[in-house]
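Marked as duplicate of an earlier ticket. Keeping the data here for the record.
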Amino acid sequence: MVKTAYTKDDIVSLAKKENVKFLRLMFTDLFGIIKNVEVPISQLDKLLENKLMFDGSSIDGFVRIEESDMYLYPDLSTWMIFPWEHEHGKIARIICEVYNADRTPFQGDPRNNLIRVLKEMNDLGFTEFNIGPEPEFFLFKLDPITGKPTTQLNDKGSYFDLAPVDLGENCRRDIVLELENMGFDVEASHHEVAPGQHEIDFKYADALQACDNIQTFKLVVKTVARKHGLHATFMPKPLNGINGSGMHINMSLFHKDGNAFFDEKDEMQLSESAYQFLGGLLQHARGYTAVTNPTVNSYKRLVPGFEAPVYVAWSGRNRSPLVRVPIARGLSTRLELRSVDATANPYLVIAAILEAGLDGLRNKVVPPASVDRNIYVMNRQERQDNQIGDLPSTLHNAIKALEKDDVMEKAMGPHLYPSFIEAKQLEWSAYRQEVSEWERDQYLELY
């Protein structure tokens, strides 16, 4: 998506020209859920003057009732008119940053937090952190009577299948068309490995815009799917026995001379900065896993046998490690983190992995040797000999690892870090009290 430097006058003019009647003022809560305050177009001038307030006490992870009055500051570059019509006129969205009543940036706003970490990156001499996400999702049929999602998949397709096997093709095509209407540069669209599973890849962008794009992408996918009588879900593992959905994150760091990860003199054509950034990613992998994989269900995907990473290692050749170095070089030199899933809050994810990488640069962390064989077939001793650790196996273990990582505390800041840990501890506590059908099948008669 091309970032446009809109002025206030541009936005007023476009709203009038396109008959915009409503504004969706969008922001993201602690859990990565899109929130919005919808106001009539008559409030546009007030918004553009940073005078529009809302009640922050009703948003997860924000503030208490006695601190509820907060401002929404619009990022003018995110102005977008939705392509779908409304009977009363068009709807435009603009992504906002949340400010306190005293006009200071709210530390509990994940977008503000990422802006803070990006400033740290700039202070170290880097100009951009480019992100290319690869989000996957499932399409389930909606119940024709209740309109609720079912667990019936809409096809039996597999990797790169076509219609009639891939019955989601028309839906996926319409999603792509809507995204392109909204300015996305879609690079690929295809059926994934599991039945009913799809992937749409769009062009990389700088970190902040990439996170905005991920949030917009999720909204479009769900909206278009519903028009096809389908429910789109980014839940990592909705069904047993098939591959789960991830959101691989491709990343590259830039400075004034170009891609900071590229060095044509190195055997792998990777720079010292690339190795050190990689070292930081691996060193803090257990610490940021609760952020990149934030739900109980995330860990049903992170198991051997379903192409998802389980072990902390890297490689330029095989796809079993946590971090892969794709073959492209020059300006396209990048690292690919393969553990992330799309239930994660993108602003928190990018802040966490950037802070991990910057810590690697500051401390000149040397990564272990690359692992160019299939880790899944190694035994425990072989993994130990190759310095290959494990990712946390449950949300509970991931939270404990997050609590031990000072760099992740720095990445999330004094408001988000404790709020996130407390919320995820409550989620785990609620989950561990539930008795599943699996347990009844295993134990009810046996004991």
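See parent ticket for discussion. The CA atoms of residues 281 and 353 lie 6 Å apart.
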